[in-house]
Amino acid sequence: MKVLAINASARKDGNTAILINTVFEELDKAGIETEMVQLSGNTIKPCRACWACSGQKNCVQKKDLFQEIFEKMTRADGIILGSPVYTANISANMQAFLERASVVTDMNREENWFRYKVGAAVTAARRGGALNTLDAMYHFFMLQNMFVVGSSYWAMAYGQMPGDACKDEEGLDTMRNLGRNMVYLLYALKERKDKNEKGH
Ligand SMILES: Cc1cc2nc3c(=O)[nH]c(=O)nc-3n(C[C@H](O)[C@H](O)[C@H](O)COP(=O)(O)O)c2cc1C
């Protein structure tokens, strides 16, 4: 099984990356493959509302990383969306990514790419807007027939400068618990899928 994380921070290996890696530690322990894509240094262009993706199985815009990441997403068993709080919301790159991902899935409904997959979101904030940011990412999962994983607290941690999130012990614990809950759900769903395939 594999979990793909998309980190939409403008800062490579910053606080959002720390949170994702903390979730990954639990997945690694359980033998689940992980990969983090960091959008830092790249710009994801917004949706052009051209609807040309209908029946095309991907966005038709080619000049950024979207197509490659979207394809990886369709192959993963679990998806983590990670964004720092920017002006009390997701980053512009995450917004652009989710606009296009939502339209492509809507225009290619018969593919059912994300049905029964597991989704989790994480965010890093200096002080305010974390819940709104998480909600914006949950909205994507909730229209894809996916299962969204919770934790012992909302999946956020506080910090401003790179590495600050390591000082937020409660935030890190929340991430570890999120990782363990993902493991539980991923294996439960795998068992169900295996049984279905055997005709039980
Ligand atoms: C453009 C921009 C806007 C931000 N807006 C907020 C905000 O509204 N609320 C907040 O708590 N932190 C805000 N921050 C701070 C970041 O959320 C915080 O530094 C976070 O730890 C960055 O995570 P990263 O290291 O993964 O980039 C903002 C940072 C930037 C660059």
> What is the radius of gyration?
16 Å
The SSE string, one letter per element, is EHEHEHEHEEH
- What is the CATH-assigned architecture? 3-Layer(aba) Sandwich
Q: Which structural class is indicated by helix and strand composition?
A: alpha/beta
Q: Which fold name corresponds to the CATH topology? A: Rossmann fold
Molecular shape:
globular
User: What is the mean pLDDT?
Assistant: 97
Q: Beta fraction of the residues?
A: 15-25%
Helix % is 40-55%
Tell me the domain tally: 1
- CATH homologous superfamily caption: Flavodoxin domain
Name of the CATH first level: Alpha Beta
Taking the sheet with the most strands, its summary is: 6 strands, parallel
Question: Short summary of the structure?
Answer:
The chain is of the alpha/beta class and 200 residues long.
Can you walk me through this structure?
With 200 residues, the chain is α/β, with parallel strands linked by helices. The protein has a single domain, classed as Rossmann fold. Helix content is 42%, strand content 16%. The protein contains five helices and six strands. Strands 1, 2, 3, 4, 5 and 6 form a six-stranded parallel beta sheet that branches. The two termini are 21 Å apart. The site of flavin mononucleotide has 19 residues, from helix 1 and strand 4.
